[in-house]
Write a structure and sequence with these properties.
2 domains, eight-stranded mixed beta sheet, alpha/beta, 12 helices, GMP Synthetase, Chain A, domain 3, Iron-sulfur cluster carrier protein, globular, Rossmann fold
């Protein structure tokens, strides 16, 4: 095993190669392949890709597979999951990898159009810490810094990006690809642009992962300097899929100052470490509140917790965002505060964050950014 405690794919495959169907004699890896392996919530989670026709046969072998992995990598317990790929008609079948579940329908069908200098995940270990608001204002702030920016809403179950950007129209489909909406200098796409705002997305893991794959690969993003991905909260299948399939340049972690939020943020950081995605830094949101009448500063949730956590992890601390009613109001009205009220305290905090990230991107991107 590696020093981090995560088995290499080759190690997992070596164990699973000995698992076979006693009746037919077919080996597990003859009818399935290892798509990913990572430590999630203390367990070794192995995701197998299998053709839909063979899913039942592979499912019968998962118990034996988990037993073999448990024995090989004790004391870590294992969990084997399947991602079944449906057969498609020639008209539906994509010319490049990325098929499987296509819950967005017949959109797609060509090679991936993703041409981007850097892909950054904005994440948190839990909901309610202002991650989406941060992602939106960071994306618009990066556009104001002169970068070509895309913004993808990966929260399939609770998409909020259309409301925050003030986008109400459905995206155009051109040559089988979705055309992202343009708002506030950013190219944006969300499943919330494709369904009714009040519709519940009651989807299981494979459907969610399929939708995320389509939002990445079946959208005509054009040539981007940076794609910001607003990650769903938690550390489940959707996060694992994005961490491993989106070729993330790095992740930005959003947390509030109090210990309970930082506890969840640590889980998100651990997930990115296990999937070898660099943590670009931490942001402390709702860091303090300033009374609009007297200007008195109150630290409602404590203060400095995210900065201390960044120091403990030897990761950059990217800044503090205040708790202000104007931030909430701007999000509800569809006008990101970084553009709608650029002189406000909140906008200045987001602009400082964007400038820091833009400077880092310009140093590390493989190609010159737009306007360089």
């Amino acid at each position: 095993m590696t020093q981090r405690g995560v088995p290499e794919r080759t190690e997992v495959e070596a164990i699973l190669r000995d698992v076979a169907d006693a009746t037919s004699g077919r080996g597990l890896l003859d009818i399935a392949r290892v798509e990913s392996c990572a430590i999630v919530d203390g367990r070794l989670r192995v995701v197998l890709t299998v053709a839909a026709a063979d899913a039942a046969a592979v499912d019968r072998l998962t118990g034996a597979a988990e037993h073999a992995l448990d024995s090989a990598f004790a004391p870590v317990r294992s969990q084997v999951m399947l991602t079944a790929h449906r057969e498609q008609t020639p008209a539906q079948r994509p010319a490049a990898p990325g098929g499987g579940h296509r819950p967005l329908g017949g959109v797609g069908g060509g090679a991936s159009s993703l041409d981007v200098g850097a892909v950054i995940a904005v994440a948190s270990g839990k909901g309610g810490v202002g991650k989406s608001t941060t992602a939106v204002n960071l994306a618009v702030g990066l556009a104001l810094e002169g970068l070509s920016v895309g913004l993808m809403d990966a929260d399939v179950h609770g998409p909020s990006l259309p409301r925050m950007l003030g986008v109400a129209e459905r995206p155009e489909v051109r040559d089988g690809r979705l055309i992202p909406a343009r708002a506030w200098g950013v190219s944006a796409m969300s499943i919330g642009m494709l369904v009714d705002e009040n519709q519940a997305m009651i989807w299981r893991g494979p459907m969610v992962m399929g939708a995320i794959g389509q939002l990445l690969n079946d959208v005509d993003w054009g040539r981007l300097d940076v794609l910001i991905i607003d990650m769903p909260p938690g550390t489940g299948d959707a996060q694992l899929t994005l961490a491993q399939k989106a070729t993330l340049t790095g992740a930005i972690i959003v947390s509030t100052p109090q210990d309970i939020a930082l506890l969840d943020a640590r889980r998100g950081i651990a997930m990115f470490e296990k999937t070898r995605v660099p943590v670009l830094g931490l942001i402390e949101n709702m860091s303090y509140f300033c009374c609009p009448n007297c200007g008195h500063r109150t630290e409602l949730f404590g203060h400095g917790g995210a900065r201390e956590e960044a120091a403990r992890l030897d990761a950059p601390f990217l800044g503090e965002i205040p708790l202000l009613a104007d931030i909430r109001a701007s999000a509800d009205s569809g006008a990101p505060i970084v553009a709608a009220a650029p002189e406000s305290e909140a906008a200045q905090a987001y602009r400082k964050l964007a400038a820091t990230v833009a400077e880092s991107l310009r140093r590390t991107m493989r190609r010159p950014p737009a306007g360089a």
